[in-house]
Amino acid sequence: MLWKLLGVAAGIGLAAFAIVLFGNARHAAGEAEERGRWQARRVEDVRADAERQIANAERGAKAAAAQADRMAALLPLFLQSERSVNDYAKTAAGAVLCRDADRVREIDRMDELVFPAAATTARGGEALHPDAAAPAG
């Protein structure tokens, strides 16, 4: 009877061992399947992110090119406006309304006293020439 009892115990132990092995194998297979799904999704996410970055870079390049085109189109207007102002300043009416170079320099000096931080920036005062026809006031 002892041998029968030991045989049954060994059979139960062997069955329990087989169940544990089978359970571990199923668990490992489930983890591997989940990992495969996760990695495939991760690859897809990285690919989509790269496509978004490329699209953003292309949009930025197009916007920069469009801005450069707009600025190039406006340059003749700026130059013509500057010529118009300079031509008007040479007339008698323009000489009265336009400020002479010394007056502009005085305004720059007052700005430097009031706003000392702005004094470190570049000034365009050296581009001004004295205009004898303009009144000093």
3D structure, described in words:
The protein is mainly alpha-helical. Helices cover 80% and strands 0% of the residues. It contains 3 helices and no strands. The termini are far apart. The mean pLDDT is 79.
Key terms:
137 residues, mainly alpha, 3 helices, 0% strand
How much of the sequence lies in strands comes to under 5%
Structural class: mainly alpha
Distance between the amino and carboxyl termini: 130 Å
Give the count of helical stretches: 3
Topology of helices and strands:
Blueprint: H1 2-90, H2 92-97, H3 101-114
Summarize the entry for a quick read.
It contains 3 helices and no strands. With 137 residues, it is mainly alpha-helical.
